[in-house]
From TrEMBL:
<feature type="transmembrane region" description="Helical">
    <location>
        <begin position="57"/>
        <end position="76"/>
    </location>
</feature>
<keyword id="KW-1133">Transmembrane helix</keyword>
<dbReference type="Pfam" id="PF01594">
    <property type="entry name" value="AI-2E_transport"/>
</dbReference>
<feature type="region of interest" description="Disordered">
    <location>
        <begin position="1"/>
        <end position="33"/>
    </location>
</feature>
<keyword id="KW-0812">Transmembrane</keyword>
<feature type="transmembrane region" description="Helical">
    <location>
        <begin position="264"/>
        <end position="284"/>
    </location>
</feature>
<protein>
    <submittedName>
        <fullName>Transporter</fullName>
    </submittedName>
</protein>
<keyword id="KW-0472">Membrane</keyword>
<feature type="transmembrane region" description="Helical">
    <location>
        <begin position="366"/>
        <end position="393"/>
    </location>
</feature>
<comment type="similarity">
    <text>Belongs to the autoinducer-2 exporter (AI-2E) (TC 2.A.86) family.</text>
</comment>
<feature type="transmembrane region" description="Helical">
    <location>
        <begin position="296"/>
        <end position="322"/>
    </location>
</feature>
<feature type="transmembrane region" description="Helical">
    <location>
        <begin position="82"/>
        <end position="103"/>
    </location>
</feature>
<feature type="compositionally biased region" description="Polar residues">
    <location>
        <begin position="1"/>
        <end position="11"/>
    </location>
</feature>
<dbReference type="InterPro" id="IPR002549">
    <property type="entry name" value="AI-2E-like"/>
</dbReference>
<feature type="transmembrane region" description="Helical">
    <location>
        <begin position="329"/>
        <end position="346"/>
    </location>
</feature>
<feature type="transmembrane region" description="Helical">
    <location>
        <begin position="208"/>
        <end position="229"/>
    </location>
</feature>
<feature type="transmembrane region" description="Helical">
    <location>
        <begin position="115"/>
        <end position="141"/>
    </location>
</feature>
C-alpha cells in the first residue's frame, strides 16, 4: 500500500488500517471491510496519479538517472565480496527476529548472549548439514565416471537423433569455415570433446577449491555483521529516526522499517518452513522409490527451493540424472523427478501463495527478471536474495510519494476491476 504524502501528516486509510492491525496482532493483519478496501484503493490510485503528475522527468533527468543506476550496479558488481555478506546478514537478521525476541523478551537473556546462541546454533546447523551430505556427495562424484557406460546403454534409443544433429552441426561448421577447406570429421570432434572434458574437470576442481575458501571468508564476515545487527540494530535505527527533520519523515521511516520487518521476516519464515517440508517429502519419496542417499537429495531439494523457478527446475533435472544412473530402466527413472515436480507444484503454486497472498504479493514477471539479474550480478547468492531485495524495494516505493507508481507496478496480481474504480482524478496542487 502507498504511504502518506510528504506534504501532509493527516492519517490516511492505510494508517488507520495499520493501527487496527497493530492492536489486533503483531503478525496477522485484521481483514479490512469492503468499504475500507475501496477507500484504500481510491486513495492509493489518487496518490499514484498525483506522483506521476508532479514528478515528470525530462530527457536530461532520465539520462542522469540511467547513468546513476549504471554507476550503482557497476559498484555492486565489483564490490560483491564486501557487499554480499552485509546483505546476507541483513536478510538473516530479519529471519532471526522471532527467535531473538523470544530469547531476549520472554526468557530475559541479554541481547549479546541471545545473538551468540542463535549464531552458534545456525553455524552448527550448517556444519551438520554439510557433514551429512559431503560424504554421499563425494561418493557420487567418484561413481559418475563408472556409470557412464550403463547410462549410454539406457539412452541408446537417442543415439540416432543425436548422431543426426551432430552431422548437421559438423556440416554447418564446414560451410561456415573459410571456403569450406577445413574438413571436420566426427573422430576429430570426439577427440577434441574428450580433451575439453578433461580440461573442464580440472578447471572445475580448482575453481571449487578457490570458491570454498572465498565462501568461508564471506560466511564468517556475514556472521560477524549479523552479531552486531542483532545486538545493536535497534539502537542504530533509533539514531537514524532521531535525525529525520520532520515528524512526517520520522513516522514514514518507522512505517517502512516495521513493514519490512513484518512482511519480509514472515516471508522468510514461511518459505523456510515450506522448504523444510519439501525436503522431508522428497527425502521420503527417495527412500520409497529406492534412490540411494535419500538424505542428500532431500537436503538438495530444501536448498534449491529457496531459488524461485530455476531452483526446482534444476532439482527435477538432477533427480532425473541420478535416477537414470540408479534405476535399471528409463521409465523407472522418470518416477522420482515426476514426484518432485508434483510436490513443487503443490507447494509453489497452491500452499505458499495461499499463505502469503495477503501480505506479500509481487509481479511474477518482475520476480523472474530480478532472479535472472541478481544471479548474473552476484551468482547463486544473488539468486537467493533476489526476492527479499525486491520486496524491500517495493516497500520503500510504496511509502515514498515519488516512487509510488513503481511500487504499484511491482505489486502482484489483483482482483479484476473496472477502470472507473481506480480512484478520483487529482491535480498536482490538490490533495489525493
Amino acid at each position: 500500500m502507498s504511504g502518506p504524502s510528504l506534504a501532509s501528516d493527516t492519517p490516511t486509510p492505510e494508517d488507520r488500517q495499520m493501527n487496527d492491525t497493530n492492536a489486533a496482532s503483531p503478525l496477522i493483519p485484521a481483514m479490512p471491510s469492503k468499504e475500507e478496501t475501496a477507500e484504500s484503493d481510491a486513495y492509493q490510485a489518487g496518490v499514484i496519479r498525483k506522483a506521476m503528475l508532479r514528478h515528470s522527468l525530462g530527457l536530461r533527468d532520465v539520462g542522469i538517472l540511467i547513468l546513476s543506476l549504471l554507476a550503482v550496479f557497476y559498484t555492486l558488481y565489483f564490490a560483491a565480496d564486501i557487499v554480499l555478506p552485509f546483505v546476507f546478514a541483513m536478510v538473516v537478521n530479519l529471519l532471526m527476529i522471532g527467535p531473538m525476541r523470544f530469547l531476549h523478551g520472554r526468557l530475559r537473556i541479554p541481547k549479546p548472549i541471545s545473538a551468540l546462541l542463535l549464531i552458534i546454533a545456525m553455524f552448527l546447523l550448517v556444519v551438520c548439514i554439510g557433514t551429512a551430505i559431503s560424504v554421499p556427495a563425494a561418493a557420487w562424484l567418484t561413481k559418475v565416471p563408472q556409470s557412464l557406460p550403463a547410462l549410454q546403454q539406457k539412452l541408446a534409443f537417442l543415439q540416432g537423433p543425436i548422431d543426426s544433429l551432430q552431422r548437421g552441426y559438423l556440416r554447418v561448421v564446414a560451410l561456415m569455415s573459410n571456403g569450406g577447406h577445413h574438413h571436420v570429421n566426427a573422430a576429430t570432434a570426439a577427440a577434441q570433446s574428450a580433451s575439453n572434458g578433461a580440461e573442464t574437470l580440472r578447471v572445475w576442481g580448482s575453481s571449487f577449491l578457490i570458491g570454498t575458501r572465498a565462501f568461508m571468508g564471506e560466511f564468517f564476515t556475514m556472521l560477524l555483521m549479523l552479531f552486531f545487527l542483532m545486538t545493536e540494530g535497534d539502537s542504530l535505527l533509533r539514531r537514524i529516526v532521531e535525525i529525520m527533520p520532520t515528524y512526517s519523515d520520522k513516522r514514514r521511516l518507522v512505517q517502512i522499517t516495521t513493514q519490512i520487518e513484518r512482511n519480509v521476516s514472515l516471508y522468510l519464515a514461511t518459505i523456510t518452513i515450506m522448504n523444510i517440508l519439501v525436503g522431508l517429502l522428497n527425502l521420503l519419496q527417495c527412500w520409497l522409490t529406492g534412490m540411494p542417499n535419500p538424505l542428500l537429495w532431500g537436503v538438495l531439494a530444501f536448498l534449491l527451493n529457496y531459488v524461485p523457478i530455476i531452483g526446482p527446475l534444476t532439482g527435477v533435472v538432477v533427480y532425473f540424472c541420478v535416477a537414470l544412473i540408479s534405476f535399471p530402466s528409463f521409465l523407472m527413472a522418470l518416477l522420482p523427478p515426476a514426484i518432485y515436480l508434483c510436490i513443487h507444484i503443490l507447494e509453489g503454486e497452491t500452499i505458499t501463495p495461499m499463505l502469503l497472498a495477503k501480505r506479500f504479493t509481487l509481479n511474477p514477471v518482475l520476480v523472474m527478471a530480478s532472479l535472472l539479474f541478481w544471479d548474473w550480478m552476484w551468482g547463486i547468492g544473488g539468486a537467493f536474495l533476489s526476492v527479499p531485495m525486491l520486496a524491500v524495494f517495493k516497500i520503500f516505493c510504496d511509502h515514498i510519494e515519488g516512487l509510488s507508481p513503481i511500487g504499484h507496478v511491482l505489486g502482484g496480481p489483483v482482483r479484476p476491476r473496472s477502470l472507473r474504480t481506480l480512484g478520483p482524478e487529482v491535480t498536482p496542487g490538490s490533495p489525493p
